[in-house]
Amino acid sequence: MIELRAVTHVYGDRPVLRDLSVSIREPRVAILGGNGSGKSTLARMLNGLILPSSGTVTVDGLDTRTDGRAVRQRVGFVFQNPDVQIVYPTVEEDVGFGLKARRVPKDEIARRVTAVLDRYNLTRYRHQPAHHMSGGEKQLLAIAGVLVLEPAHVVFDEPTTLLDLRNRRTVIQVIRELPQKAVVVTHDLDMVMDFDRALVLEEGRVVIDDVPAVAVPAYVARLG
Amino acid sequence: MLGLYLHRDSVIHRLGAGVKMGGLLAATLAVLALPGALGALAAGLLGLGLLVAAKLPVGRVLRELRAPVVMLTLLFGCQALLAGTGWAETLAAVARFAALILLATLMTLTTKVADMVDLFERLFSALRPLGVNPAKMALMLALTIRFIPLLAEQVREVRMAQQARGVERNIAALFVPLLVKILRLADDLTAALDARGYDPTDDGRHT
Amino acid sequence: MLSTRDLVLSALFAALVAGLGMAPPIPLGFLPVPITAQSLGVMLAGALLGAKRGGLALLLFVLLVAAGLPLLAGGRGGVGVLMGPSGGFVLAFPVGAFVTGLLAERFATGANPIRLFAVCAVGGILAVYAGGIPWLSVVAGMPLEKAALAVMAFIPGDFIKAGIAAFAAAAVRRAGVLPTAHA
Q1: Which residues in chain B have their CB less than 8 angstroms from residue C13's CB?
Q2: Choice among A106-115, B161-170, B172-181 with the minimum mean pLDDT
Q3: What is the 8-class DSSP label of residue A151?
Q4: DSSP H helical segments within chain C, as ranges?
Q5: Closest residue to B191, CB basis, from A49, A101, A149
């Protein structure tokens, strides 16, 4: 369970999140909102990348302020731009990077990398440089690099925004079939319709919190 | 990234990078220690011998040497004409270096980039007492290689924009957005590394 | 200790210098020879990243050139180039960036293009040529003064580069995206 308690965050003198208290335990949760609503900041609080100016964020009981490293082991994070997540020159090395950082033994790394590359149909790129891949394939590679670490939760920050239609569908399918719990920040309203819960943020506050069937129309109405 | 390595099935290619580097260093020192003409001869013979042993295409290799040799010849020519002193010694010095450049070029042509990088990492491990963190150096080298194609593409785009607009006025101005983009990319990459569990306090030592 | 941000910045700027080598040289109507942008990268790395990260960026670059990647202007690389007449200049790149950074941290912390020009010129030209000319004189078998004369033709172009670097660095600093030296 991910829990936010009285979370407020300011950049300089600009408040970005205002006194948010939310408990997230559903398998698929969407976070919606316009630019400047605070949703990206919120996403980054869920794995401790950003610590709140005040309030606490806990993941399965671990406080992001004091147990940041443990939190990041439990919560994977997929960024909007796949290029920032690909670190190593070849696909195989890049997927194995997080495991190497955890001192997992080499043969175990090889096994897990093979499994995840197979799972996402990236095996043929194994020894190739990432820049030979399409945007969608790079995003899958980034996701693979996160999933190979077997986190308990995965946070996605606008995973489909930069992708074309076909790649969008592939990533949506991947998210649908994920065994882990997922929190997805997105503009893509179609994707979230079969989620369990949708939170809508506006100026740093949660203004709608319901199942997507209710939340999404309410959100659209609000925009209109 | 494609390196300058030229694959052939030869003994020289199969030699370890460390052995070749050590050999190059030793040969360089020996040649510099010998008097000019003798050094040139020794290095030249060694170079040609290795070239044959490595089964490399001679024309191709000598083409690699063309740029430095042309430059050296021009410099030698200018100096000889203007100063008129020590023709023979200057010629010997130039020949010596041309031969050393040949040896060094052979090193590069017969050794894979990855093997050279591995060699550097081993050297960094040896420098640990001086505070060098070999794991960080390795990560930085990998990151650099990974991002060269991307940044090269972005530089190309900036250059095309410069050419389209007529360069004289705005060169600096067109570089600025690129630099800002790179600095923002650095922020994102740092966050992504943190998110994937990279720990900068890890000293790279495996227990 | 090198932070994650430090190592990312160093690597990205090393990649930038490589990228600058792959772009076509910049023709300037009033100079007979087009200028290559690579030494521009040396000055920018020092001015924007500071001594430690700038020097490290160029060290990474030189290591990869030595490893056999064709990162120098014209697609050149390998140990052979470093051994040749221009080798001293390339090997001095890390020193040039380091000196530029050191001077920038000391004397040009704001966005003043004149000061930045001065530090880029000293670090990017003086320091680099101080490394390049001696090696050239050894390789070409010519006395130092002759070697220095031989490379004189490139100096005006390098001063222009220092100017470009200074203006660009000043603008980037004004944009407020720079990490501080200790971030």
Answers
A1: 182
A2: B161-170
A3: -
A4: 4-22, 38-67, 79-83, 87-91, 93-107, 113-121, 128-140, 144-150, 155-175
A5: A49
C-beta atoms surrounding B185 within 10 Å? 20
Report the predicted TM-score, pTM, of the whole model to 2 decimal places. Answer: 0.90
Q: What is the CATH number of the domain that holds A105?
A: 3.40.50.300
- The CATH label, of 1.10.1760.20, 1.10.3720.10, 3.30.40.230, 3.30.70.141, for the domain at C4-175 is 1.10.1760.20
Instruction: List, for residues C126-173, the tens digit of each pLDDT value.
Output: 999 999 999 888 887 778 888 888 788 888 888 988 999 999 999 999
- What is the chain A residue with the closest CA to B189? A84
**DSSP structure string for A170-195:** HHHHHHHH-SSEEEEE-S-HHHHTTS
B197/A102 CB distance under 8 A: yes
For the four alpha carbons of B89, B94, B97 and B99, in that order, the dihedral sign comes to negative
Mean pLDDT for the stretch of residues A189-198 = 93
Q: Is B204 on the interface with C (CB under 8 A)?
A: no
- Give the structural domain span for A188: 2-223
Task: Please give the ipTM for the structure prediction.
Answer: 0.91
Measured between CA atoms, the residue of chain B closest to residue A102 is B197
Phi, psi of A153 (to 5 degrees): -130, 155
Q: Is residue B154 a contact partner of residue C22, using CB atoms and an 8 Å limit?
A: no
Residue B197 to residue A77, Cβ atoms within 8 A: no
Query: Predicted confidence band at B204 (pLDDT cuts at 50, 70, 90)?
Result: low
Indicate the domain borders of chain C: 4-175
- Counting the structural domains of chain A, the total is 1
Name the residue among B150, B188, B197 with its Cβ closest to that of A101. Answer: B197
Q: Which residue of B has its CA nearest to C75?
A: B4
